């Protein structure tokens, strides 16, 4: 279930909670499976469009019994059945999907385990988390808590403004969750959500059917006004138009073709450990704004290193070179995309700020050096990517006009430079840009964008 069907299913999203069931459970239903299934059925009869089974810290046997009972009810009414957090249980129960939180299993790993046919939902509390979740191939997001709630004690709060920002930042549907009931649901109008996820307002009600029936109209209005699908279609259209008009391509390397930005964040740590020195826990924050000479000076002061600044710089370079020579990998779909461009006869240039020695050994190891007509470095171009020199030189190498020479970049400043020089820019997502807002600003500057090269067809 994807796209329009999923959007409709997210309208009134019921999240189970056995705490509201009458106790004690009867002898024939000691874990409350039948009672919870009956409650879920009452909610569905009133207009609940999706059910999530949320059970924490219970025996696996009870989890499966409860899941089987609730899942059977969902299948009876053709309502999607989602399991919270427990991927193994979801697979055993043949659920329609899995929902994970920020402290649960990594969303990208869950997607790998469940495949493309199952629904993946992710809880978020910020724009950065929302962007990362979409990059991990989530199908929808749950944002909250939007109102105070006692149902989930560890839920962070999400303001109305933040909720609207989350909805605008992604092209997958978002449901609001947390303390939603008939008295406050209208306050979510205009935020861009696709629906509301409700716990106690459904499962704590004496008449669950009527409770759902009362909430359903407002939820249907959310679904009808949600523009996530339209924005996703527009994004696909932009990508297709840029790819079809492309006559040459210029690629950045780090963060664009290579998943290398985490290495740069850990470079100081890698170096210090190579010297058998335990780094400070916040070593990245202490060194990220320093150039190489300043970093070497800091190491001498903070760790009592006796070598010269020049020697330390040389040793750091060797550690970084080792990562390019042996460790770093291509981004998802990059190899297939490069091969497709080669088969189409599109000339390509690599334009990088990275040292030539590192770039060449990495391209050779990965087997993609032959894809590029030329390797250009900013050092050799005489300017960084805050100036268009390297892009203009790449254009001269391909012999194409700027309007049909697509630049692939992950960095905001570089993408802006290329765009201002007349090149269509394809913004390539890198996780390092999620939290500071650079990804959203880069998308605005670019002609199109992608989370993965698999989204691009040529």
Mean pLDDT: 95
Percent range for helical residues? 40-55%
Strand order in the sheet with the most strands: 1-2-3-4-5-6-7-8
Class of secondary structure makeup: alpha/beta
Number of distinct beta strands: 14
Rg calculated over all Cα atoms: 26 Å
Shape: elongated
Strand percentage: 5-15%
Detail the poorly predicted runs: none
Total of helices: 21
Give the terminus-to-terminus CA distance.
27 Å
- Largest sheet composition: 8 strands, parallel, barrel
Features:
alpha/beta, six-stranded parallel β-sheet, 458 residues, 46% helix, elongated, 21 helices
Describe this structure in words.
By secondary structure, the protein is an alpha/beta fold. Helix content is 46%, strand content 13%. The chain has 21 helices and 14 strands. The strands form two sheets. An eight-stranded parallel beta barrel has the order 1-2-3-4-5-6-7-8, surrounded by six helices. Helix 15 (309-326) runs parallel beside helix 17 (356-366).
């Amino acid at each position: 279930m994807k796209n329009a069907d999923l959007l409709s299913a997210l309208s009134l999203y019921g999240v189970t909670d056995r705490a509201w069931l009458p106790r004690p459970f009867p002898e024939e239903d000691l874990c409350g499976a039948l009672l919870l299934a009956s409650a879920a059925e009452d909610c569905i009869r009133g207009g609940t469009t999706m059910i999530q089974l949320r059970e924490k810290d219970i025996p696996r046997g009870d989890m499966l019994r409860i899941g089987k009972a609730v899942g059977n009810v969902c299948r009876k009414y053709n309502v999607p059945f989602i399991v919270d957090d427990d991927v193994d249980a979801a697979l055993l129960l043949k659920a329609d999907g899995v929902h994970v939180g920020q402290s649960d299993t990594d969303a990208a790993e869950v997607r790998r385990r469940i495949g493309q046919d199952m629904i993946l939902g992710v809880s978020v509390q910020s724009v950065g988390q929302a962007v990362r979740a979409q990059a991990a191939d989530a199908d929808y997001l749950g944002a909250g808590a939007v109102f105070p709630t006692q149902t989930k004690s560890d839920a962070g709060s999400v303001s109305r403004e933040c909720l609207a920002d989350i909805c605008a930042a992604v092209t997958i549907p978002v449901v609001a969750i947390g303390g939603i009931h008939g008295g406050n649901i209208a306050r979510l109008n205009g935020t861009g959500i696709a629906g509301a996820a409700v716990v106690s307002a459904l499962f704590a009600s004496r008449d669950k059917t009527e409770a759902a029936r009362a909430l359903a109209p407002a939820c249907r209005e959310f679904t009808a006004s949600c523009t996530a699908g339209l924005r996703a279609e527009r994004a696909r259209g932009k990508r297709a138009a840029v790819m079809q008009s492309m006559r040459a391509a210029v690629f950045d390397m780090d963060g664009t073709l290579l998943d290398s930005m985490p290495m740069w964040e850990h470079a100081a740590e890698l170096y210090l450990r190579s010297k058998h020195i335990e780094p400070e826990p916040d070593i990245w924050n202490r060194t990220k704004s320093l150039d190489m000479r300043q970093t070497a000076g800091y190491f001498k002061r903070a760790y009592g290193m006796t070598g010269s600044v020049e020697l330390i710089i040389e040793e750091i370079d060797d550690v970084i070179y080792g990562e390019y020579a042996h460790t770093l990998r291509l981004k998802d779909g990059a190899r297939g995309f490069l091969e497709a461009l080669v088969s189409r006869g599109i000339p390509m240039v690599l334009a990088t700020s990275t040292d030539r020695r590192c770039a060449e050994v990495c391209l050779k190891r990965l087997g993609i050096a032959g894809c590029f007509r030329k390797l250009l470095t900013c050092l050799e171009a005489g300017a960084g990517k805050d100036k268009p020199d390297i892009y203009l030189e790449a254009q001269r190498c391909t012999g194409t006009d700027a309007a049909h020479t697509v630049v692939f970049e992950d960095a905001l400043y570089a993408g802006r430079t290329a765009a201002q020089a007349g090149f269509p820019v394809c913004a390539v997502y890198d996780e390092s840009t999620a939290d500071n807002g650079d990804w959203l600003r880069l998308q605005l500057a670019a002609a199109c964008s992608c989370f993965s090269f698999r989204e691009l067809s040529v």
